Amino acid sequence: MNNNQPKNVGLLVFVAALGYFVDIYDLIIFSIVRIESFQDIGVPEELMRSKGEFVLNMQMGGLLIGGVVWGIIGDKFGRLRVLFGSILLYSLANIYNGFVQDVTSYGVIRFVAGIGLAGELGAGITLVSESMDRRKRGYGTMIVAGVGVLGAILAYYVSEWFNWRTAYFVGGGMGLFLLLLRVGTFESSLFKQVSNHEVAKGSLGMLFSNRERFLRYVYCLCIGLPIWFVVGVLVTQAPEIGKALGAETVLSAGKGVMFTYLGISIGDFFAGLLAQWLKSRKKVVFICQMLIILSSLWYLNSTGITSEKFMWLAFFMGLGVGYWATFVTISAEQFGTNLRATVATTAPNFVRGALIPSTILYGYLVSLWGIIVAATVMILLLSAIAIFALTRLKESFDKDLNYIEE
């Protein structure tokens, strides 16, 4: 082995972690500055919710499309192409976002930013997983995600210190700066080996042409389902849930998101270390599912909940869903080198997109049973699906990734 390899791998992990940090910052900045930015560009109060859903759905659409595009590029042309291309696209989009004057332009730019944001995590996790010793790669992916989600906390404070346009400029500027740091990174040796083989690379059709492979992919997606329901509904709808629980003060969704992401960051580190200790990623995901269920039920049964208690519960729920990096790592490890980037990049974005049908079902249940019962049923249902899917996947810890899908 090259004596410089450990140093180079360390640089790779560092740069991938900073990339995901910027990615998370840019991913949630709209949710944080929505009200201020809409007021500034003249959106009427009564249209705040509907226009906000339009812009957020545009960003989500970009994420779904980008997940497919960058995944295919990563397997066909290399992981580094994705890391350079995605960050350049979303950085420029966020800088331009600081100049928008109307909702239509806002939505279009968030769509473009979403396409760029879709490539960062999957490509980073794939590159780190393929470049590190298989017994230690869990540490690398743990650092990438643990450091990365702290970008949400920076986004909250930047929005508090500066106006919304500056918040977008900061995100874009960080991305362009990071682009310069990536000049010293290197391509995956496993990808280089596969690039010389006459084998299908980045083919979505391969995921659907074989029943066993298709189910493997679906199971990978299912283990991540509870994550975004906790963040996107249980925490984001804290004002409405708090009201249903009889809270004396309005619960702050913004602070809830900050504390949840703090929990996710610590949870990602904890999940990575625990996986190395147990030598099992499946056991860690199961433990996280139990923590999600316990903390969510505690939250949804906290009659008269206070703001302080909500912050702590948001943090505990964040710890539970802090298996995000482990989920993406499992997805990457389940597939051969010629499909690995496609799976690792589409999986997190499809899971984010799965929040749409989840919220539709949740809305229907709210109309039947009210917000508390509906939220309880949904979190139990999604965790049950995740646990079942987990039992159908093979343990991937310490798995040799030097193989291809035929």
What does this structure look like?
This protein has 406 residues and is mainly α. It folds into two domains: 1-183, Up-down Bundle (Growth Hormone, Chain: A); 204-337 and 354-395, MFS general substrate transporter like domains (Growth Hormone, Chain: A, Up-down Bundle), CATH 1.20.1250. The protein is built from 20 helices and no strands. The protein has helices spanning 5-40, 48-77, 79-97, 103-117, 120-131, 137-148, 151-161, 164-181, 189-195, 204-209, 211-222, 225-235, 238-244, 253-278, 281-300, 307-320, 324-333, 340-353, 355-369, 371-392. Helix 1 runs antiparallel to helix 5, helix 3 (79-97) packs antiparallel against helix 5 (120-131) and helix 15 (281-300) runs antiparallel to helix 20 (371-392). The longest helix has 36 residues, at 5-40. It is globular. The two termini are 29 Å apart. 52% of the residues are buried. Residues 1-6 have low confidence and may be disordered. It is a multi-pass membrane protein.
Layout of secondary structure:
Elements: H1 5-40, H2 48-77, H3 79-97, H4 103-117, H5 120-131, H6 137-148, H7 151-161, H8 164-181, H9 189-195, H10 204-209, H11 211-222, H12 225-235, H13 238-244, H14 253-278, H15 281-300, H16 307-320, H17 324-333, H18 340-353, H19 355-369, H20 371-392
Helix pairs in contact: 1-3, 1-4, 1-5, 1-6, 1-7, 1-8, 2-3, 2-4, 2-18, 3-4, 3-5, 3-8, 5-6, 5-17, 5-18, 6-14, 6-17, 11-18, 11-20, 12-16, 12-20, 14-15, 14-16, 15-16, 15-20, 17-18, 19-20
